[in-house]
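F.,

This is the one I mentioned.
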């Protein structure tokens, strides 16, 4: 593949391409140049080189389900189609019994992970969520619990009067295994203030993840793109993640999340194209040389874009989900009842020319035999 670089005519792009092929890190200015100047074919070529260097021909997936404890939220992010204030007739919350009931519904079924994320409930503190973690672990000790975005953590720890370190230590002791990537949005303060004015700051998001990493709790990172941000904001966001990863090595995966326009107050912006999605996967794969996995979260992208993204740097499709999330269908994603059996995920991966690899939540291989 590296021989093809000779066909790149633009001198700056050829220089960047040679760096990427040689395994040298690119600068933020070069990241912006890729977004601005490189066409889809060049980006696919370069992202493919990095992807194969890190992940070979594997495309990962896992067997998971979600619990969304509540859609009640004290914040009002402009892009969010999901949240309702406490007391709103469309607001809801599960009791701990009901959430445990969801976990028990998977008894005897081959799942390895539960992903728990919801709105920022005004009254639920760290002791409430700690108890939930303990009850899930008591019931099924081997289930990996990936739970609570940094925004939920910030609130639940603050109202409990603990420091971040104490709060995360407590949750870890209760059974928290890793932290999902939500709430990162875009780190640039100006853009963040416009799309999520009340939300925890970028510095807080990063501090929570760094504290967690230092306590041995790994995490994911997201980036919400395709709204009012510029390419420089995307690169600035990834640069902050890349430097944190240099210090801690605690991020498992990076998950670009395309802004979806249904039922929220930014709908007038529309949505970016699938081409832009693929270009964005590719630049993130090239830029984030120290985050091993790029996840195409299929309930949000749709199955076809997720499949295509494997040729533009993504190496992970998330999991089987089993119709347990509503966040994206409410924002306009095509799959109203997202659920994909492992066999179907494997087929999709094979059709794209890659080898399906079932993983656990920390990307240890579970198996690679054909399903
Ligand atoms: O932070 C909300 C995003 C995130 C919209 O870590 C929207 O494995 C697009 O972080 N259009 C929460 N995106 C979900 C999340 C996640 C999902 C899957 C896997 C993992 C993981 C993490 O959802 C929020 C926000 O960025 N979001 N509304 C919308 N209209
Ligand atoms: Fe609340 Fe999260 Fe929606 Fe923001 S994105 S309003 S924090 S549920």
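My design for it:
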């Amino acid at each position: 593949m590296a021989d093809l670089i000779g066909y790149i005519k633009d001198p700056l792009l050829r220089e960047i391409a040679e760096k990427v092929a040689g395994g040298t890190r690119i600068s933020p200015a070069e990241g912006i140049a890729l977004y601005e100047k490189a066409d889809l074919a060049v980006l696919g070529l370069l992202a493919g080189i990095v992807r194969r260097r890190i992940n070979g021909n594997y495309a990962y997936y896992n067997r998971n389900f979600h619990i969304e404890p509540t859609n009640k939220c004290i914040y009002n992010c402009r892009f969010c189609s999901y949240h309702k204030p406490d007391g709103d007739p469309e607001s809801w919350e599960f009791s701990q019994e009901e959430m445990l009931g969801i976990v028990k519904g998977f008894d005897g079924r081959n799942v390895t992970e539960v992903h728990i994320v919801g709105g920022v409930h005004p009254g639920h503190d760290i002791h409430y969520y700690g108890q939930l973690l303990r009850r899930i672990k008591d019931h099924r000790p081997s289930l990996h619990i990936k739970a609570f975005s940094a925004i939920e953590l910030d609130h639940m720890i603050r109202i409990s009067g603990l420091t971040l370190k104490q709060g995360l230590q407590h949750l870890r002791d209760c059974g928290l295994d890793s932290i999902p990537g939500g709430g990162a949005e875009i780190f640039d303060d100006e853009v963040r203030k416009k799309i999520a004015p009340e939300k925890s700051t970028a510095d807080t998001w990063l501090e929570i993840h760094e504290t967690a990493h230092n306590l041995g709790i790994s995490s994911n990172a997201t980036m919400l793109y395709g709204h009012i941000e510029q390419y420089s904001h995307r690169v600035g966001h990834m640069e902050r993640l890349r430097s944190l990863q240099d210090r801690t090595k605690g991020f498992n995966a990076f998950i670009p999340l395309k802004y979806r326009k249904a039922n929220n107050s930014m709908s007038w912006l529309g949505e970016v194209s699938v081409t832009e999605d693929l270009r964005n996967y590719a630049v993130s794969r090239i830029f984030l040389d120290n985050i091993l996995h790029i996840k195409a979260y299929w309930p949000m992208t749709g199955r076809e874009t997720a499949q295509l993204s494997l040729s533009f740097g993504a190496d992970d499709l998330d999991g089987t989900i089993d119709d347990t999330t509503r966040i994206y269908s409410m924002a306009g994603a095509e799959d109203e009842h997202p659920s994909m059996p492992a066999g179907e995920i494997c087929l999709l991966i094979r059709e794209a020319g890659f080898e399906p690899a079932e993983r656990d939540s920390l990307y240890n291989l579970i198996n690679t035999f054909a399903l």
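The radius of gyration is 20 Å.

Talk soon.
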